[in-house]
Amino acid sequence: MSEDDQTALRLRVEGFVQAVGYRHFAIEEAARLGLDGWIRNRADGTVEILICGSTKAVEAFVAAAMRGPPGSRVKNVELHNAEPPAEKGFRRRSSV
């Protein structure tokens, strides 16, 4: 696979991932890696993320998402193929 390959994934992050700076951590990682997408808390206590960019950068983001920021405890990360976001950049969305 070449570095120019694009990947879009939807992640569902389970564990102690709300009220610990997880969304801020993910926004910083996405910006550092030049990725597009969004992040939001879900009512069931998980965090949902849509991430899109070069395959190499998306893989690096997923590795960071599995680790999380200090204070979080990631139990599981579900990965699903997704359509790329309509907008460029990475942003926080309202909780659902």
How many structural domains does the protein architecture include? 1
Give the oligomeric state of the chains in this entry, treating copies of one chain as homo and distinct chains as hetero.
single chain
Gross CATH architecture: 2-Layer Sandwich
Based on CA inertia axes, which overall geometry fits? globular
Element layout with pairings:
Blueprint: E1 6-16, H1 22-33, E2 36-41, E3 47-54, H2 55-67, E4 73-81, E5 90-92
Parallel strand pairs: 2-5
Antiparallel strand pairs: 1-3, 1-4, 2-3
Helix pairs in contact: 1-2
Properties at a glance:
96 residues, Alpha-Beta Plaits, 5-stranded mixed β-sheet, 39% strand
Question: What can you see in these coordinates?
Answer:
The chain is an alpha+beta fold and 96 residues long. It has a single domain (18-91), classed as Alpha-Beta Plaits (2-Layer Sandwich), CATH 3.30.70. 26% of the residues lie in helices and 39% in strands. It has helices spanning 22-33, 55-67; strands spanning 6-16, 36-41, 47-54, 73-81, 90-92. It has a five-stranded mixed β-sheet with strand order 4-1-3-2-5, covered by helices on one side. Helix 1 (22-33) packs antiparallel against helix 2 (55-67). The N and C termini lie far apart (36 Å).
